[in-house]
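LAB NOTEBOOK - FOLDING QUEUE
OPERATOR: T.R.
BATCH SIZE: 2
PURPOSE: Compare the predicted structure-token outputs for two unrelated chains run back to back under identical settings.
PRIORITY: normal
REVIEWER: second-year student, initials M.K.

ITEM 1
FIELD SEQUENCE / FIELD STRUCTURE:
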Amino acid sequence: MHFKPSAILLLSTTIILSACASKHPGERRGAPEGPEMDPGRMEQMVSRYIERWDYNNDGAATCDDINVSRSRLFRLLDEDKDGLLASGEYRHAKFEDKSFLFFDFIRVDANGDSRVSVEELVAVPNSQFLAADKDHDCRISPQEAVGAMHDMQMGKRPADPGKASKRGERVDRRPRDQ
């Protein structure tokens, strides 16, 4: 019995790919799930995650905290202290907050006056916060913090915050009245 080399190559490639294929796409193979985390340790990690966003020290991570953070960033970037950012001042924003990688100066300058006001800077969505705030209530709950930490561990990155949501509409990210 004589086989052509291309037939053997095709057959062996098919066998190897079949062996490597997962029944569930996207599922990681070979790495066993770790043991359940101690609840005290989990609570500590969630607390640290929320503290990372809690700029007004009220014990919660909210959109108001992002606004405080952005106002502080504006003051830091405004080198000439004129209350507006020129493009040269704005270009440093992406080094302080990775969300600004998605938003160039022209996009942030909503009124087109070639300057960025504090209101325009604060209006830029924070991609990491928005990715964690799954229910879009402008508050990261402990469950959302756990989910965000899991996503980070699995290497999931936040989507471009300027794009439309899954349902096709843009999501309003302003704080809601409580």
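ITEM 2
FIELD SEQUENCE / FIELD STRUCTURE:
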Amino acid sequence: MNLLQSVGAVLCVSGPFLALGIVFIVVAVNRRRKAQASLSWPTAPGVVVSSEVKESVSTDEDGPSTSSYRPKIVYTYQAGGATYQSDRYSFGASSSNRRAAEQIVARYTPGMAVSVRYNPEKPAEAVLASEAGGFNVFLIVGIVLAVLGVMIACGAIVFVLLAGAGGAS
């Protein structure tokens, strides 16, 4: 295997880890930025239309299915003379734990008056809670994946260089 093929193999193995790590980090930072921005958004009175826990089931071919849960709180509000409807509780993952999702849903009963933060530039974009749910998890996973990708690349490069030096003598 020549040096170019070795570098290509290193990139094929380490590249996905690094790329996925960067994606997770960017998603985490964007969620945090959006949540921070929403703190300065104007508020409007709103009304809860419905409130329930939504379950998402993912099934693996080789293993059991896993469930994640999120609160789905539908609410209406008025901004700029128009009426809007949204179901965004917060930016990011609100919960994957059933009990935590149930606790959030219990705080929002249909017909209840709520304070809604909406984006003045895009009034259809709104949240009930100005937080970046799942920020720490996404950031940590992103950092771990990126570091793993760099470590795989460095280890493979050192291996290729040592193998090349050993073959040259």
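REVIEWER COMMENT (ITEM 2): The chain has a mean pLDDT of 83.
FOLLOW-UP: none requested
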